[in-house]
């Protein structure tokens, strides 16, 4: 190879690397904006890379995740989109960069069923871009959010419990050709959309107020709950039966091996002790929370796809406001 050809090859390689870095940085920034927008309005936020939500997932630490309940915070979104079968692009989630959900105002179901809440999902769209919602819905939008049209549809999702079979009312909007938002509350969808479309990006300031954000955000799957101790309608439904006023936040994430981490942030050990007693009573082989630095308690939980793992993840999502009344 001539010197000129060699030099040209080096320049091409460097250009490709720089473009890749630019795309990665842009994706990270969009994900951070989505997280900040949800943290601004919601108590619990979950985040996942799309391949971890797929039923064909082969990721070792999430083997058999479909039956282990960790996907539960995202199942409402999947059900909402499934109701549009044949109209909505089926690969939208799979081709996205990330999927997030914010939840708050946890209410018990009527009879048996999952706890309901106000939720807003943010799908950080991938290279394929945004779905054309005008093609999905053959009627006029019902409102607007951040200057974009909002569509409304209904789906049988069991949102209200076995004793209340009402159809769930859902709203969707595409923001800045970068985000797909789906919510069961129009006002919340509009609020999140406005934050994502704002010319001023306040995400850094918002996220700087989230304790241990830098550590949590490195993971491909995480949940973060900042406890709200006032206005709790039902502590059991909210997953707060063992939570004392000293508790600040609850964190869950998957590490690089076949374990996950549950971390409690609090000003004293009262909540950790109550949670440990409750877990011990449940008998699911869950190591107790132990002190792990200033104002923090932590435990590592193993998942192996068996029945006991399913029980463990059932408890985990319940602590974040996604329990099910059985």
Describe this structure in words.
The chain is α+β, with helices and mostly antiparallel strands and 326 residues long. The protein has two domains: 28-201, no CATH class; 213-325, no CATH class. Helices cover 31% and strands 25% of the residues. It has helices at 3-41, 72-82, 133-136, 186-197, 203-208, 213-216, 270-282, 307-319; strands spanning 44-48, 98-107, 113-114, 116-124, 143-145, 148-155, 168-175, 179-183, 221-226, 247-254, 259-266, 290-291, 296-302, 324-325. It has a twelve-stranded antiparallel sheet with strand order 5-6-7-8-4-2-1-9-10-11-13-12, sandwiched between helices. A two-stranded antiparallel ribbon has the order 3-14. The termini are far apart.
Low-pLDDT parts are: 3-23, 57-63
**Order of strands in the sheet with the most strands?**
5-6-7-8-4-2-1-9-10-11-13-12
User: Radius of gyration, rounded?
Assistant: 21 Å
The biggest sheet amounts to: 12 strands, antiparallel
- Shape, principal axes of CA atoms: globular
- Compute the number of strand runs: 14
Structural class: alpha+beta
Quaternary status = single chain
Distance between the termini: 70 Å
Total domains: 2
What is the percentage of strand-forming residues?
25-35%
Q: How many separate helices?
A: 8
**Average of per-residue pLDDT values:** 87
Order of helices and strands: HEHEEEHEEEEHHHEEEHEEHE
**Helix fraction bin:** 25-40%
């Amino acid at each position: 190879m001539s010197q000129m050809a060699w030099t040209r090859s080096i320049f091409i390689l460097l250009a490709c690397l720089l473009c890749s870095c630019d795309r990665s940085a842009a994706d990270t920034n969009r994900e951070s904006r989505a997280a900040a927008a949800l943290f601004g309005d919601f108590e619990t936020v979950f985040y996942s890379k799309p391949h971890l939500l797929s039923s064909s997932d082969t990721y070792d630490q999430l083997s058999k995740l479909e039956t282990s309940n960790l996907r539960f915070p995202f199942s409402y979104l999947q059900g909402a989109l499934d109701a549009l079968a044949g109209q909505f692009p089926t690969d939208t989630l799979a081709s996205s960069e990330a999927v997030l959900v914010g939840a708050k105002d946890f209410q018990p179901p009527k009879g048996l069923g999952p706890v309901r809440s106000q939720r807003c999902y943010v799908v950080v769209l991938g290279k394929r871009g945004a779905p054309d919602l005008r093609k999905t819905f053959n009627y006029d939008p019902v409102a607007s959010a951040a200057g974009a049209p909002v569509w409304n549809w209904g789906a049988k999702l069991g949102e209200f419990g076995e004793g209340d079979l009402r159809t769930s009312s859902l709203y969707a909007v595409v923001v800045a050709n970068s985000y797909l938002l789906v919510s069961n509350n129009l006002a919340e969808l509009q609020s999140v959309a406005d934050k994502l479309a704002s010319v001023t990006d306040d995400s850094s300031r918002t996220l700087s107020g989230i304790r241990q954000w830098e550590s949590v955000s490195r993971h491909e799957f995480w949940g973060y709950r900042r406890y709200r101790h006032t206005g709790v309608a039902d502590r059991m439904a909210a997953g707060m039966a063992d939570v004392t006023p000293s508790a600040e936040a609850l964190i869950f994430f998957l590490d690089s091996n076949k374990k996950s981490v549950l971390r409690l942030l609090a000003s004293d050990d009262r909540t950790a002790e109550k949670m440990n007693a409750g877990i011990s009573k449940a008998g699911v082989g869950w190591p107790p929370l132990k002190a792990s630095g200033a104002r923090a308690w932590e435990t590592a939980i193993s998942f192996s796809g068996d029945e006991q793992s399913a029980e463990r993840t059932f408890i985990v999502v319940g602590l974040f406001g996604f329990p099910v009344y059985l």
